[in-house]
Amino acid sequence: MTKDADAEIANIIAEFARVVGDPLAAERLTVTGPPDVLPSVYRVTTVATVAAAAAAHGAALLWSARSRQECLPVSVDTRHAAAAFRSERLLRVGGQPAPSPWDTLSGYYQAGDGRWIQLHCNLPHHRAGALELLRARAEPAAVARAVARHDAAQLEAELQAMGMCATMARDEQEWWAHPAGRAVAGLPLVEIDRIGDDVAEARGGPSMATPARGTRAPAVPAQALSTQAQALASPARPAAGLRVLDMTRVIAGPVCGRTLAAFGADVLRVGAAHLPDARPLVIDTSFGKRSTFLNLRVAADARRLRELVAQADVVIQAYRPKALDRLGFGPEALARIRPGIVCATISAYGRQGPWSGLRGFDSLVQTASGIALAGTRAAGSDRPLPLPAQALDHATGHLAAFGVLAALAHREIAGGSWHVRLSLAQTGRWLMGLGERDTLDLPEPREAEIAPFRRVMRSEFGELSYIAPPGSVGGAEHGYDRPPSSLGTHQAGWAPIR
Fold this sequence. Notes:
Elements: H1 3-20, E1 29-32, H2 44-67, E2 74-77, H3 78-84, H4 87-90, E3 92-93, E4 96-97, E5 107-110, E6 116-119, H5 124-134, H6 140-147, H7 152-161, E7 166-168, H8 172-177, H9 179-185, E8 191-195, H10 197-202, E9 243-247, H11 252-262, E10 266-271, H12 279-285, E11 289-293, H13 299-309, E12 314-317, H14 331-337, E13 342-347, H15 362-369, H16 371-379, H17 391-414, E14 417-423, H18 424-433, H19 447-450, E15 454-459, E16 462-467, E17 472-473
Parallel strand pairs: 1-2, 9-10, 9-12, 10-11, 12-13, 13-14
Antiparallel strand pairs: 2-17, 3-4, 3-16, 5-6, 6-7, 8-14, 15-16
């Protein structure tokens, strides 16, 4: 490699140590491959490599805590990490690319004031809501004409007020001056905090809240709940025997659950039959998981979820902030149901600020925060240019897995319940904070370069060619022990611990 490439790899390793909060961790990380793989104006390859390495580091921490052995080294190939960040694009079903989850109406439209606005119509109700407000036919040209009759900021506000998914394209300076941008700027990349009654008692104060109706503490010690069958953990499966409820959709949250499944956890995806989802994304992010349906507004289903939580180790949720709190399943309530729980909360725009309750997706955050317009300027394009991958989604998912695994390691040593919080906007701030590095002239990775990271598995959908999980712990390769399945296929119960 050139001196510049060597320096970039050194920067990747230094950034990894900063993200995981351990300067000594840099000595245990090996990075192979070129420093730049994906064409972008930002350091997308750096973010992919650091996030994948962080998840592997979290697995090494958990293995160390469970085995009482030294923390093992981890390794990541930049080409593998970059491919993993495009897993939904690289998935092959029966030898063919999976259908695109993008609706024909999703995309950028120029408003009457000359500014760009992005509509996200990939879910049917978001599509219908945008068409209703615009009073337009379901054709891109008709939508473009309708958008051109509006001011971009006003249209953004009206669609957001309806609960739809849209945002005006801002530059980075404008975003950081916006109240939502300022709110995100005050948050760290990953928050890992201890929660629950034990925190209040340690401070000498009263319990944070009274127990929710219908819940009670389990009769067995917290740490014995899911490990009492003494599942055999290993460097390849450091999360073996641990139980994860994955209450997420689309990409970021499901990637977190998929990563935990790759490290050996029993992951049960919990959704509701009436909620829409994108089938290609379900296939790509469901490796290693089982899937069940529960409607939390139905008393019997809510009771069943409490029973599942009482025997779980981790709950991942990516609904809007406070959405599950109103149904009695917020982090503090979960910690009362199951002392020792690790909760991971993923949102679009963070836990504070005027946009904290908005629905949002990776591409919308890119548009709102200046990432898309930075690509426009660098490429000399006449319209917003997104990143070459859903990098905010995938990075947030891998960083969430790191937070969960690190919290489980903390729990193994010190006990307690833990809350891990992240957002796509916080991840976007991290990416932008690394500075621009124009690699737009890089060629797209060829299939021959991707092939070493592919694996094949049979499933109900046909033969799947997919990207294996990136990174290794102590040289051990980890992977999925079951193919993806249709939503709601399994019973709402835990698998026997092996």
